[in-house]
Design a protein that fits this description.
Number of helices: 12
CATH superfamily of the largest domain: Vaccinia Virus protein VP39
CATH topology of the largest domain: Rossmann fold
Strand order of the largest sheet: 5-4-3-6-7-9-8
Number of domains: 2
Shape: globular
Distance between the termini: 57 Å
Number of strands: 9
CATH class of the largest domain: Alpha Beta
Helix content: 25-40%
Bound molecules: S-adenosylmethionine
CATH architecture of the largest domain: 3-Layer(aba) Sandwich
């Protein structure tokens, strides 16, 4: 099996795939239904069916379809989330927002949370899985994204703690659909400036939904609207946590301060990029 791992890894690296060894282990683990550590030690030939699956996965990967979109899951925070071409694949950078939110929520009290642009549900569901007292409302304009989020809620066993709202933040009746005021709003809205979309990696622009990426002319279009609608939905003293793109933190903080929020802090990701803006009402 080690030979097989080497062979897959070599094929992937020849197709200019980053981290070919890690991906080879993940692919074999998926095919053999065993952990990545176990497949590194496995000592048997693949069956005809497994070989066929392997070839199909490698073919798609060589065409630069992201591995998580091929295998249908992506690890985020403490869990594996179902993903498809209808949702943004959760990014490690977003885990900071989850960690900060957990620190700010009260652990021994019921807490209500709204997630604007929930997508796969990775942020909201990670929070709800942390504490059975917390309840969430996941808002997304995409019904297909909400279908995936629902599946993930079942997977994490938090279905009883969540409601899904298929509306957009530009919808005039959004407030009526939401149970408010809440203790916290979290959001990772689309923030890529429209003119930058074409220069994104193939794996992002061809396989993540455009609806999850396009932030309008300056990338800040959705933040302006979220700032407008959030204040009446949040309790006095409640927090809003926003993921932002590179160089956007200060401008996003200003947009929300102008809407009446107070800046608490800006948190950087592992790459030292200001990534999460935290404000208080
Ligand atoms: C960047 S993705 C974030 C997904 C997920 N929360 C995460 O962090 O991985 C943004 C999400 O916002 C949704 N969205 C885009 N425009 C919207 C709008 N006007 N109203 C509500 N949701 C919207 C998209 O469908 C997408 O699921």
């Amino acid at each position: 099996m080690n030979q097989l791992l080497n062979k897959i890894s070599l094929t992937l690296s020849q197709s200019h795939i980053d981290s070919p060894r890690l991906e080879a282990r993940r692919i074999l683990s998926f095919i053999c239904h065993q952990s990545e550590d176990e497949v590194a030690l496995l000592d048997r030939e693949l069956s005809a069916e497994e070989t066929q699956k392997l070839n199909e996965i490698i073919r798609q990967r060589q065409a630069h379809k992201p591995l998580d979109k091929i295998l249908g899951t992506k690890g985020f925070y403490k869990y594996d989330f179902i993903v498809s071409e209808d949702v943004l694949s959760p990014r490690p950078d977003t885990e900071i927002l989850v960690e900060e939110a957990i620190r700010l929520l009260t652990s021994d009290k019921a807490q209500k949370i709204i997630d604007f642009g929930t997508g796969s549900g990775c942020i909201l569901l990670s929070l709800l899985a942390e504490n059975k007292l917390w309840q969430g409302q996941g808002v997304d304009i995409s019904p297909k994204a909400l279908d995936i989020a629902k599946q993930n809620a079942a997977l994490l066993d938090v279905e009883q703690q969540v409601r899904w709202i298929n509306k957009g933040w530009f919808d005039a009746d959004l407030g009526l659909a939401l149970d408010s005021p809440v203790d916290m709003i979290v959001s990772n809205p689309p923030y890529i400036p429209s003119q930058d979309i074409q220069s994104l990696d193939e794996e992002v622009k061809n396989y993540d939904p455009m609806l999850a990426l396009d932030g309008g002319e300056d990338g800040l279009h959705h933040y302006r609207q979220i700032a407008k609608v959030s204040s009446p939905l949040l309790k006095e003293g409640g927090y809003i946590l926003l993921e932002v793109g590179i160089y956007q933190a200060q401008e996003v903080a200003e947009i929300f301060c102008q809407a009446g929020f107070n800046l608490v802090k800006i948190v950087s990701d592992l790459g030292q990029i200001a990534r999460c803006v935290i404000l208080k009402k």
